[in-house]
Design a protein that fits this description.
By secondary structure, the protein is mainly alpha-helical. It is built from ten helices and no strands.
């Protein structure tokens, strides 16, 4: 069902589907490293898979193919977490829905859509956020030029306590090294 929700995807936007699957695998590995109970590990994997589901209601070509987005493009893109949460609303997947809605919040409160900070950000959203950024930075075929794993970890470690939950950064370092 979760994979079906990603459509349109595999045929038209294989990079988006591959990104969602990569974030799902890394989110699951982080949850296991953090020794979460099995149900939470499954929720982490599902949240990683569905984190960008709101993109299906936006113009994929505009969002993913345009290397120099306008302010309007950015504003449109920033709606995808709220749209994704609306798609999942009422499914009984409350933790996953919260993670989808808040996966672009930042530890320091400068993220979106609600400018939550620190522990106000749902746990799974903090986990998915670090997994998503690592995937975008380090896996070829994503939305920007790739950097080596070591460089991706440097960038993320530099954002510890600002963009990222320090606990999630530490778990990421242990999982990918």
């Amino acid at each position: 069902l979760a994979r079906r929700l990603l459509q349109p995807g595999a045929q038209k936007f294989p990079d988006l589907v591959a990104h969602s699957e990569g974030v799902s695998r890394l989110s699951m590995a982080l949850a296991q490293k953090l020794e979460l109970p099995p149900v939470r590990v499954e929720e982490a994997a599902l949240a990683g898979l569905l984190h960008d589901i709101g993109m299906r209601e936006l113009d994929y070509d505009q969002a993913y193919r345009n290397r120099t987005p306008s302010e309007d493009d950015r504003a449109r893109y920033q709606k995808h977490p709220v749209i994704g949460a609306e798609i999942l609303k009422g499914t009984g997947l409350d933790e996953v829905t919260a993670a989808v809605r808040h996966h672009h919040e930042r530890w320091d409160g400068t993220g979106y859509p609600n400018r939550l900070a620190g522990d106000e950000i749902p746990f799974l959203a903090r986990l998915v956020h670090v997994a998503e950024v690592f995937d975008v930075l380090s896996v070829p075929g994503r939305y920007r030029p790739t950097v080596p794993v070591e460089r991706a970890l440097e960038i993320i470690t530099r954002g510890k306590g600002h963009q990222f939950d320090p606990q999630m950064v530490e778990a990421l370092v242990q999982v990918v090294t």
